[in-house]
Design goal:
Elements (H helix, E strand, L loop, with lengths): L2 E6 L6 H7 L2 E3 L5 H9 L5 E6 L5 E14 L9 E16 H5 L8 H4 L5 E4 L1 H12 L2
The chain binds a DNA duplex (12 and 12 nucleotides) through loops.
DNA sequence: GCCAACGTTGGC
DNA sequence: GCCAACGTTGGC
């Protein structure tokens, strides 16, 4: 089992929309590194769902339900999508600001390469984030 | 709205 | 193959 994080502008595709749609196709990825990460996702892998823009934060947890297949929205090029579904909304948002303050999380791709929209998350990082959620 | 970081494009 | 120019992302 692997752990991931996907970023999205809430105006483009929000957590609320994911909950409303249920199983959703994660399309529109047009970055090779992000695409390659999509292709490494396996069914049942867990995906932290991150809102970028105003009040950047992890807001919920999703799950991969269908492994990669060609992106039907791509007019050209070799692009992929996966299907995800919402697992649960976090009981509170874990903000970028507080993630930055946790020493153990300083190597997260989220902080090291803030522009990568589909990124791996280490097991230790994942567990730490869940612990953070329980605090406060 | 600004700007840093990163990716892509295209001339040479 | 290098690099300047440009476009995009995303935090602030």
């Amino acid at each position: 089992m692997n752990y991931w994080l996907v970023k999205t502008e809430p105006a483009t595709f929000s957590w609320e929309k994911l909950e409303k749609e249920g199983i959703s196709m994660w399309d529109g990825v047009r970055n090779y590194q992000a695409r390659n990460n999509l292709r490494k996702m396996r069914c049942n892998d867990l995906v932290l769902f991150y809102h970028s823009g105003k009040n950047p934060a992890i807001v919920g947890l999703a799950e991969v339900v269908k492994e990669h297949y060609p992106d039907p929205t791509a007019k050209e090029g070799d692009w992929s999508v996966v299907d995800i579904r919402p697992v649960r909304k976090f009981k509170r948002n874990i903000t970028l600001q507080e993630i930055k303050q946790v020493k153990i999380l300083e190597n997260m791709v989220l902080l090291r390469n803030s522009r990568l929209s589909v990124q791996p998350v280490g097991l230790g990082e994942y567990q730490n984030l869940l612990n953070l959620e329980q605090e406060k």
